[in-house]
Each structure stands twice: as structure tokens, then as C-alpha cells.
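Example for reference:
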Amino acid sequence: MTQRYLIVIEGNGSGNYSAYSPDIPGCAATGDTLEECESVMREALALHIESLREHGDEVPQPSSLAAYVEV
């Protein structure tokens, strides 16, 4: 079953991006470009969730939301 998890990608536009998912503690990834970081994070999430299942641990359900606000 496919789940949709929020990922947060941080970086300043000059490379060296990092990402994490608020719903999956301990899972993070980095990449030289935004696209690479997102791709590596997708793979990291899949492997992390697979490992949780293999060990009989509960897989957290997606619950985080994001919004932009203007101030």
C-alpha cells in the first residue's frame, strides 16, 4: 500500500540540501541538488519503512501537514 509522507527539504539554493520527514523520526537524506535530495529521501523512506516492517515495528501513519503563510 502506498502512503504519502510529507518531507521537509532545507537548503539555500547553492547545493547541499537535506531532507527529513516529521512523521518518520530518524530518517533523513542529503543531496547536491533539490532533485537529488528528494530522490534520495524517497529511497530512504522506503528502506526505513521496509526495515520497520521486517522488525515488526509499527509504521507511523502520515499525519503532518504543511502550509505557507504570508506575514
